[in-house]
Amino acid sequence: MMQALPPNEAPAIIVTGTALPADPAERVLQSERLSRRELDRAAGQPLDRLLSRLAGAEQFRRSDSRSAHPTSQGLTIRNLGGNAASRALVLLDGVPQADPFGGWIAWPSIGALSLGEARLLRGGGSVTSGPGALAGVLELSSRTGPSTIATVEAGSRRSLEGEMLVARDVGSGSLALSLRGSRSDGFVPIVAERRGAADRPAPFRTGSARLRWTAAIGPTQELQANLATFTDQRERGLELTDNRTRGTDLSLRLVSRGQIPWAATLYAQARNFQSSFAGTDAARTAARRTSLQYDVPASAIGWSAEVRPHLGSGLEARLGIDGRRAAGMSKEYASYVGNAPTRDREAGGRQSNAGFFGELTSLSGPVTLTASARADHWRIFDGQLVERSIATGLPLVDQQFASRSGWLPTARAGTALRLDPRWSIRAAAYAGWRQPTLNELFRPFRAGSDATAANAELKPERLRGVEAGIDGRSGPWSIAATLFANRLRDAIANVTLGIGPGSFPGVGVVGAGGAYRQRQNLSAIRSRGAEVTAGWREGPWHVDAGLSLSSARVVASGSAAALDGRRPAQSPALSTNLGAGWIDGSRSLNVDFNYESARFEDDLNSLKLPRSFTVDVDGEWPLADAVNVSLRVENLLNRRVVAALAVNDVQERAMPRTVWLGLKLKPRLR
């Protein structure tokens, strides 16, 4: 019961800038958290590099966002395979971060300093976060509270990374500005023994800015507004392979922490992408353009609202609605003869989903029971693939695809039992789905000598899964272990249907040795395995370890029968990481070991990427009052990490050894 206030005394208004409290239903799944301290340590670095230390969290390729093509920067978990579209849902303050056209994530746009927490929730069936969380959810939350912090690092190959955050209380709210920028002359992606005269370093330039305002609009209500913009420019190590991404996001969130808590969010996103693709001759002596995406506009609007009524007797409920509507179109020159394009292509469309959900959680002594479900109506419409002759202007292909729609469920049920204050066990079963992206549905593409046709008839992916785990602490030790079994039905994959030379439907001519593929729904991908995270803390010392072990196999028939029993492309069976260090106030020294078993480049498992092992070290030491000096070395042993492999054994590598020296400023607030 609320106590009465003395006359003329107004209630205290506290602006938190956060969402509603964590959902107790998430106790039935394994989660891993990156704290503010860990994020501060990673300031200036791309966020995806930090996430790669979490066992089982994989991007489509081993390259991080400083050298990978923007369209390969997706996130998945539990070795469900991938084709660059994310199979894990990434949220920033409740707003999905996937590109509206392609489903990839613009990691350079998110600065670590602007975040207060990053939490990886493993397991599907995320009812309250919306559809798309086949493998889990990465929840990013903005930093709160007044602060001033900045970092700048200079590194190998004329690299420079910098980030800053200034946050201040303003009236009854707060205002925060975060900036991030990086540049580098880059390294040559192709390994030395396979390079030719055409190969050169791959430079990049990125920049982002984010303005966040929170304000009280009542005794228990607050408004949170975010405006963010970013730009990303890079080249892929060949002439005619430059690309650029630009984006702007706007979101508004109302949060009420009154007797009946509720929250509502509205957001809008705009993206524009340009990219040139090139190939080389066998000796890699010269580059030739193969396609040019000269304009790829994409946009999305979305909304969500939820209420958490108090039911008493240890019962927690959540009820809500949400939706998203996206549009995107790829405009590109294709079918090059010599250095001139012969076709002008437009491919894209629109899609939407809208749903409602309910969740009920019982907290009775040591037992947590939860059940949740949602239903979504999805729609794909205005799809088209149009190609015109540049010489004559006449249409060569004019495909207008019929609209499709349907309803799909998401559900999760689970239980957690606290055995004593230190140990608990948990189990969950879930079902989820992901709509194919506009890129997968409508846009054919070429990568080197390979060509992949789109498929406007792709069905949504549907996942069913179960898992069980244990969490515990004993003195300085902590551990979380999970066994899981997932089955992804109608999994979308690039399926090899032929080898060039020849002319193939949807893509045209494919040269000798090139693969002709089409995006198709496989019968299923089965993934079974285990995840373990463990930690030890004693005074300033710490050790953290993570392991992801899985057996993933494709179930396929018909035109994809050759894939049956094979491992999904880009899915390692084992990934581990071990970090150890010493942190004493502003002094620190850390070392990280990362290992990944072999993975396959292609669906037929004919191109094998060897295992990888890297060591990273970093340290920080006070230089003056509120000023620290830092030293960081990535890939200390300069091991070759193969990120991509072509049929002619041309290997592309990830980041070689890179040395960074930096300054971190954290003045005391007055």
From TrEMBL:
GO terms for molecular function: siderophore uptake transmembrane transporter activity. InterPro entries: Beta-barrel_TonB, Beta-barrel_TonB_sf, Plug_dom, Plug_dom_sf, TonB-dep_rcpt-like. Transmembrane segments: none annotated. The keyword Transmembrane applies. Residues 221-636 form the TonB-dependent receptor-like beta-barrel domain. It is found in: Cell outer membrane. It is a multi-pass membrane protein. Keywords: Cell outer membrane, Membrane, Receptor, Signal, TonB box, Transmembrane, Transmembrane beta strand, Transport. Residues 34-137 form the TonB-dependent receptor plug domain. One of its GO terms (biological process) is siderophore transmembrane transport. One of its GO terms (cellular component) is cell outer membrane. Belongs to the TonB-dependent receptor family. This is TonB-dependent receptor. It comes from Sphingomonas piscis. The lineage of its organism: Bacteria, Pseudomonadati, Pseudomonadota, Alphaproteobacteria, Sphingomonadales.
